[in-house]
Amino acid sequence: MTEVKIETVPDAKSLAVRAAQIFSDCFRNAVARKNSFTVALSGGSTPRQLYELLADETREFREQIVWNQCHFFWTDERPVAPDHPDSNYRMTWDAMLRYVAIPETNTHRIQGEKLPGDAASDYEKELRTFFKLKNDERPAFDFVLLGLGEDGHTASIFPGTEALNETRRLVAAPWVTKLNSHRITLTLPVLNNAATTVFLVSGANKATILREVLEGKPATFPAQAIRPTSGELIWLADSAAAGKLSATTTEA
Description:
Blueprint: E1 3-9, H1 12-34, E2 37-41, H2 45-55, H3 61-64, E3 70-74, E4 76-77, H4 88-95, H5 116-130, E5 143-147, E6 171-172, E7 175-176, E8 181-182, E9 184-186, H6 188-191, E10 196-201, H7 207-215, E11 232-238, H8 247-250
Parallel strand pairs: 1-11, 2-3, 2-5, 5-10, 10-11
Antiparallel strand pairs: 4-9, 6-9, 7-8
Helix pairs in contact: 1-2
């Protein structure tokens, strides 16, 4: 049964600090167990603050992590080249990866410059190779970082897209009508197979959707489909984003 935790912190800075603490704890636990740490990263402005904090040489987190024991993947990507301003990979590189001692072979980016279907197929092959998967097995990430869109999407699983119903493939390339674009995304079976999944939610503009996702019944948003099969699920929200949650939810 999924263990769900909801934590609130005062502001965006505190959000990044708490997320870095969880990241560091998960790193230590994974390395102690199997000598490596596998992570699926998200794009967006809120995760960027976490990445900058992890790479900050004046803070303790950078020294707590043995970077060559980390393998970084991405939850989703836009159909752009890795140097494009909209690339999730580029954001992560600019904020964190360029500053830490991680081998190039330990970064497993989605090749968004390819045709979306090809990028999804190739990324699935990489996942199967790296995790040594057989048949219907799924990757088991140690840590998955997710965000929450104002429409309830997470990764690049948007309301009404076929990716919501995907049960077999590990990676999909859904067409997102509202964006007039394809996206490449890990699918729900992968996202729900992680040891630890953390949602980062910041800002008053996320208060309504966070309340609807955590308190709304029946489930109608993609983010509500994140229900790890055996791992823990942590919702981290700053006070602005948590402003409309009921007391019973924040005490959960």
